[in-house]
Amino acid sequence: MASESRLYTFSPETTINLRKFRLGTSRAKDPQAMIYQIDKHTLEIAQADNVIYTNMQELADELPGHSPRYVLLSYPLTLPSGRLSVPYVMIYYLPVTCNAELRMLYAGAKELMRNTAEVGRVIEMADPEDLEEIEEKLGGEQ
After folding, report:
1. Which residues, given as ranges, of the chain have pLDDT below 70?
2. What whole-number distance in Å separates Cα of residue 50 and Cα of residue 72?
């Protein structure tokens, strides 16, 4: 991770927002998600927009068709035992139509983003429509 942390950067504001989001979503009643992207010129990882998505369809609509993104997702669900669980995961969105340069850019920063955001798990997705099945993917997490 040492080389990634020298190459890619987070602004102090982004680091604070990552922590606030992680701590603020642990007791949420609704799904919450934020989209992050890498600036190709500065190699800074930052929030793509200042929106917290609570609807998975709206989130899917916002994901670009030809560019990767990191999506931080807190998704409350009830386990078969009846216990409430709120998994905090990172979705590594990598569309199949993405060019090789962007693939390498996002692949190189994936572990740094994972560690900085302090997520419990990374889920890879190639199609925004896969978000419709996110509950099944999270339910098999144990």
Report:
1. 1-5, 140-142
2. 13
